[in-house]
Amino acid sequence: MSEAPTTTAAATVLSVVIPMYNEEEVLPALVNRLRPVLAGLGVPYEVVAVDDGSTDRTAALLDAFRLGWPELRVIGLRRNSGHQAALTAGLDRAVGAYVVSIDADLQDPPEKIPDMLVLARADHLDIVYGIRADRASDTGFKRWTAGLYYRLVRRLAGPSVPAQAGDFRLLSRAAVDALKALPDQQRVYRLLVPWLGFPSGEVTYERAPRPAGQSKYPLGRMIRLAVDSVTGFSAAPLRIATWLGGVAFLVCLGLMVYTLSAHAFQHTVPGWTSLFIGVLFIGAVQLVCVGLLGEYVGRIYTAVQNRPTYFVGHDTAATSGTATATA
Ligand code: UDP
Ligand code: MG
């Protein structure tokens, strides 16, 4: 598949990145709603549709739409790689000064894109989050698991992670470049983006029900996202063994005292005391050792992650034309 960029990097103000997997049912409706909104902006834009290895007619439909819509660019992934990976492919290739990512299924309203752009430009923001004000259209189970998820990630990744912010957001070129420079493999953008520390704003919207097609996030994928979120931002689970080991060790000590006193003052079955103490001792030692291993694996993990430990917001020496060497 040949893919010549239809727009030049210098001119494009806005890129809209849309990961899609088997979305043939919503695609025409998406195009119908998105295109007038983007045309109404009056700035050069591109739409980067990432076909995440769809097995339905998504690719064929995209090709058809491309004929009459020069701003539409299609990136086809060879196989299904998942929502976040498809997003990465789109962000890596988008050329706009601002990049909006949006779901294909019209749960995020395209009509909010101009608001995001206006806010970012007026307040000089690098990130504008789409915040779901209302999830009434989601099932009770989805809302409950989402609530749990945001509580957990805010605890692990910090309060800068806005609750109820999905993957509908605007990023400036600087924010996109910062994301592209990260070495992370399994990316969870809703945690990585706040972690970059750029000035940010919010646009609230109501989460609409899916007009057609099925959610591509069944329970298994939701769990996968949660596990990636936790392990991507914290080695805390590895410490659980250390704590368990410590607690087990204390309990074992208590039980050992009890066993010995039982042996001294009562008639116990011969062999019970030594056997029980042996079992307790080995169990406690093993847990403590696993915990210790966990501590080291945690250090290896952060070393291998190799993320930058800081981002420079601005540097007067670099921005003032007469930069002088500093010691
Ligand atoms: N998606 C994708 N690859 C996948 C799964 C989903 O590109 O493997 C896209 C999907 O087409 C949609 C977005 O990611 O544009 C969000 O998926 P979905 O609407 O199924 O998730 P939900 O809204 O149910 O959380
Ligand atoms: Mg959806």
TrEMBL record:
<dbReference type="GO" id="GO:0005886">
    <property type="term" value="C:plasma membrane"/>
</dbReference>
<dbReference type="InterPro" id="IPR001173">
    <property type="entry name" value="Glyco_trans_2-like"/>
</dbReference>
<keyword id="KW-0808">Transferase</keyword>
<keyword id="KW-0472">Membrane</keyword>
<dbReference type="GO" id="GO:0016757">
    <property type="term" value="F:glycosyltransferase activity"/>
</dbReference>
<feature type="transmembrane region" description="Helical">
    <location>
        <begin position="240"/>
        <end position="260"/>
    </location>
</feature>
<dbReference type="InterPro" id="IPR029044">
    <property type="entry name" value="Nucleotide-diphossugar_trans"/>
</dbReference>
<feature type="transmembrane region" description="Helical">
    <location>
        <begin position="272"/>
        <end position="293"/>
    </location>
</feature>
<keyword id="KW-1133">Transmembrane helix</keyword>
<keyword id="KW-0328">Glycosyltransferase</keyword>
<feature type="domain" description="Glycosyltransferase 2-like">
    <location>
        <begin position="15"/>
        <end position="178"/>
    </location>
</feature>
<comment type="similarity">
    <text>Belongs to the glycosyltransferase 2 family.</text>
</comment>
<keyword id="KW-0812">Transmembrane</keyword>
<dbReference type="InterPro" id="IPR050256">
    <property type="entry name" value="Glycosyltransferase_2"/>
</dbReference>
<dbReference type="Pfam" id="PF00535">
    <property type="entry name" value="Glycos_transf_2"/>
</dbReference>
<protein>
    <submittedName>
        <fullName>Glucosyl transferase</fullName>
    </submittedName>
</protein>
